[in-house]
């Protein structure tokens, strides 16, 4: 999910990778093997590699720099109906997700301001 605060000049994102795909992609991209999805999600190298991949895809799609996320949170908590982050028709509830990750979003913006 991409989030942009009206008080900030940049976008941040929350990434929920597919567990099976993440393990394969990290092994291929970073040569890291035998680590759990939770541990992989917490590694700064994984976060940076995902962010670089998002930038590459964004550039190929013709996005301008200001349309690209500048920081991301990688989490293993899937958006679901049960945790109130999706509707029964599988649409994300942006307000609920933003409220749930408010602290992490604020921390990303503080890091970007440094």
TrEMBL record:
- What GO CC terms are in its UniProt record? endoplasmic reticulum; membrane
GO MF terms here are: ATP binding; long-chain fatty acid-CoA ligase activity
Give UniProt keywords alphabetically: ATP-binding, Ligase, Nucleotide-binding
Superkingdom of origin organism: Eukaryota
What is the name of this protein?
Uncharacterized protein
* Source species of the chain: Ridgeia piscesae
């Amino acid at each position: 999910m991409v989030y942009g605060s009206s008080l900030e000049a940049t976008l941040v994102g929350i990434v929920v990778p597919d567990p099976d795909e993440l393990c394969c992609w990290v092994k291929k991209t970073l040569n890291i093997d035998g680590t759990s999805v939770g541990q992989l999600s917490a590694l700064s190298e994984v976060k940076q590699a995902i962010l670089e991949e998002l930038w590459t895809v964004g550039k190929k799609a013709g996005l301008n720099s200001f349309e690209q996320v500048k920081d991301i949170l990688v989490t293993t908590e899937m958006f679901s109906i049960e945790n109130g982050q999706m509707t029964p028709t599988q649409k994300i509830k942006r307000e609920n997700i933003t409220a749930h990750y408010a602290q992490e979003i604020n921390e990303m913006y503080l890091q970007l301001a440094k």
